[in-house]
């Protein structure tokens, strides 16, 4: 790996960490009037198109199954989601939004639309926004590919000999 690549990786990681914090902050603001947290919104949003098992939600979101399980149980307790039988797996129930959960997500929509429009303007229009989405999706795909095979070098190893580097 060249020094330029290392610097680019560091800048990218720091930018993504900052962006994650920014998204979480604004998501909390958007979700609060609907009686949700950003995490609750994230899990409910993952199952809006179709019910999913907790492990499937975790894969889609890129977080641990245990984190999703904790949030899913809270959503069920609050009446925003329900567990349904899973025809593909007897023990791994599917999480599905209830009508109350769908209504809560619907209350977020006006603020979400306003934020999307503001971001599109700030980025220079919808085409620039779409380009940004494509670049971030490509970065995520690359990290998935590289990260799946990456092994950190042992002390004193030559960085050029590390698989995945």
UniProtKB/TrEMBL annotation:
Secretion signal span: none
Pfam family, one: MarR_2
HTH marR-type domain ranges (all copies): 6-141
SUPFAM superfamilies reported in the protein's UniProt record: Winged helix' DNA-binding domain (SSF46785)
PROSITE patterns according to UniProt: HTH_MARR_2
Source organism, top-level taxon: Bacteria
Name listed for the protein in its UniProt record: MarR family transcriptional regulator
Protein source organism: Streptomyces zaomyceticus
């Amino acid at each position: 790996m060249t020094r330029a690549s290392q610097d680019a990786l560091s800048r990218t990681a720091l930018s993504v960490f900052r962006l994650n914090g920014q998204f979480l902050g604004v998501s909390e603001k958007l979700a609060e009037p609907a009686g949700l947290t950003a995490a609750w919104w994230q899990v409910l949003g993952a199952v809006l198109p179709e019910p999913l098992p907790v492990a499937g939600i975790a894969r889609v979101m890129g977080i641990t199954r245990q984190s999703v399980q904790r949030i899913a149980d809270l959503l069920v307790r609050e009446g925003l989601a329900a567990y349904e039988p899973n025809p593909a797996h007897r023990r791994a129930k599917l999480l599905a939004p209830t009508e109350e959960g769908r209504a809560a997500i619907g209350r977020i929509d006006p603020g979400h639309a306003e934020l999307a429009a503001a971001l599109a303007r700030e980025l220079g229009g919808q085409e620039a926004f779409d380009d940004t989405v494509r670049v971030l999706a490509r970065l995520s795909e690359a990290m998935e590919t590289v990260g799946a095979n990456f092994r950190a070098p042992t002390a004193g190893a030559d960085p050029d000999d590390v698989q995945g580097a």
